[in-house]
Design a protein that fits this description.
Layout (H helix, E strand, L loop, with lengths): L5 H11 L16 E5 L2 E8 L3 E6 L2 H4 L8 H11 L13 H13 L4 E7 L2 H18 L7 E5 L8 H5 L19 E3 L12 H14 L3 E6 L3 E2 L5 E2 L3 H13 L2 E5 L13 H5 L5 E4 L11 E6 H8 L16 H15 L3 H16 L8 E7 L2 E6 L5 H10 L2 E2 L6 E4 L7 H17 L1
Parallel strand pairs: 3-15, 5-6, 5-7, 7-10, 10-11
Antiparallel strand pairs: 1-2, 2-3, 4-12, 8-9, 11-12, 13-14, 14-16
Helix pairs in contact: 3-11, 4-11, 5-10, 7-8, 12-14, 13-14
Length: 434
């Protein structure tokens, strides 16, 4: 049972608790969540319009694909809790981690054979970068240590991932002397269905050719750029990257932390293009939103290259690596996902969002409306008034968390049609208010 009154809780929260991208003390009052079930968050107190339950339009940032308190996930975690919640992974191993790694190898593109389990998405990106740099170091090309990406990306908040985030969105001006200087190509032309722009490809190739000698890898989010601006591009650009990386001897990293596990309409966004990266990062929906877990997968060639080197090990090993509870949740989440026709559910939500958001395109202040897989985005022509937009969504019974000029949703795959419609209406209401 809760031990703090809502007032006390919020006072302590404001005084002591950092929230994502927040000031201290906090300036906006967060909603207090008491519990969650299915696609609904239950709040401690009624909010705007007297709502005490909000349909979650955010899947807790791409993660809760099966909704909350799913009986199969609850049971899997409880069962694992009865064995052990954690043991160190150095010198020890266990079935939840081994099963998960084997499963990930099986469902990701074939050349990916080896799995490093990390404790957050950002750490998996760190590990992916370390794999690439160490591969070149181990194979006698230590000068190959820069990264190339395109603008508009997001890869996490620790320093090396931050260095490949969009330079403006990632506030690189704050970190001039601190961040490694990476290379940036322009953002790929927008549109999932857009044809490959030959001029863009030529420009990208020119950049790559010029820097091939010191480039370790290209890192991008395939098809959907998430927190960097919610833009979609054609899978043709992934084929372009694969060809250029092969031509110039540069590794290719796909950060599928947001897109993995069906969100974009394919199990992995790489599947839209039929290409395989050399390294792939997974996270967010990996445990169905239950616990923090991420993974960096790599090819046999990278693993062998590293293991032949002067330091023949991948020198990384988080304390909570391979956490059994998290792995058990991930195994159960994958059973659930792959045991159903997930693509039909994603398509159904895509259809609902397309229908529900169509009218938003004509609203004053709306710059663009786009939908891809179970992701719906309304981009305004001005920065969102976040408190006003959040409140308008809550009045409509939905939890949304807009940022910059974007009001967006990626509902749990179990969201019923009626609730998808409600979410779309709330996004529209937020666009009007924000
Ligand atoms: C969220 C995200 C990350 C960072 O993951 P954390 O678990 O928040 O560290 C990295 N890359 C992409 C594409 C993401 O969406």
């Amino acid at each position: 049972m809760p031990q703090l009154s809502t007032d006390t809780l919020l006072t302590l929260d404001r005084a002591h608790v950092w929230h994502p991208y927040g000031p201290m003390p906090g300036t906006v009052t967060p909603y207090v969540v008491e519990s969650a079930s299915g696609v609904r968050l239950r709040l401690a107190e009624p909010v705007a319009g007297g709502q005490r339950e909000l349909v979650d339009g955010m899947s807790s940032w791409w993660a809760a694909i099966h909704g909350y308190r799913h009986p199969a996930l609850d049971e899997a975690v409880r069962e694992q809790l009865g064995r052990m919640s954690h043991v160190m992974f150095g010198g020890l191993t266990h079935e939840p981690a081994v099963r998960l790694a084997a499963r990930l190898v099986e469902i990701t593109p074939e050349p990916l054979q080896h799995v490093f389990l990390a404790d957050s998405g950002s750490v998996s990106v760190e590990v992916a970068m370390k794999m690439c740099l160490q591969y070149w170091q181990s194979t006698g090309r230590p000068q190959k240590r820069r990264l190339l990406t395109w603008r508009g990306g997001y890869h996490g908040d620790t320093f090396h991932p931050m260095s490949v985030c969009d330079p403006d969105g990632g506030m690189h001006h704050l970190w001039g002397g601190v961040l490694p200087g990476q290379l940036f190509a322009p953002q790929p032309p927008a549109g999932f269905d857009a044809p490959l722009d030959a001029e863009y490809a030529a420009q990208f190739e020119e950049l790559m050719a010029r820097h091939a000698g010191d480039l370790a890898a290209v890192i991008v989010e395939p098809v959907v750029q998430g927190a960097g601006g919610m833009q979609f591009h054609s899978p043709a650009y992934l084929r372009m990257l694969r060809e250029l990386c092969d031509r110039y001897g540069v590794l290719l990293v796909f950060d599928e932390i947001a897109t993995g596990f069906g969100r974009s309409g394919a199990l992995f966004a790489a599947d839209h293009a039929g290409v395989s990266p050399d390294v792939m990062c997974l996270g967010k929906a990996l445990t169905g939103g239950y616990l923090t877990l991420a993974a960096a997968l790599c090819t046999g060639e990278i693993a062998e290259g590293i293991s032949r080197g002067e330091m023949p090990v991948l020198a990384h090993g988080p304390t909570f690596m391979g956490n059994p509870l998290a792995c058990a949740a991930a195994n159960a989440s994958l059973d659930l996902l792959l045991g159903q026709d997930w693509a039909v559910e994603v398509k159904r939500i895509e259809g609902g969002l397309r229908d529900g958001l169509a009218a938003a395109a004509g609203l004053p202040g709306v710059h663009d409306v786009r939908v891809q897989g179970a992701i719906g985005v309304v981009q305004l022509d001005h920065p969102v008034n976040v408190p006003a937009a959040t409140e308008a969504a809550a009045r409509a019974g939905v939890w949304l968390r807009p940022f910059r000029d974007l009001i967006y949703t990626m509902p749990p795959y179990v969201t019923e049609d009626q609730d998808v419609a409600r979410i779309a209406a709330a996004v529209t209401a937020a666009a009007v208010a924000g």
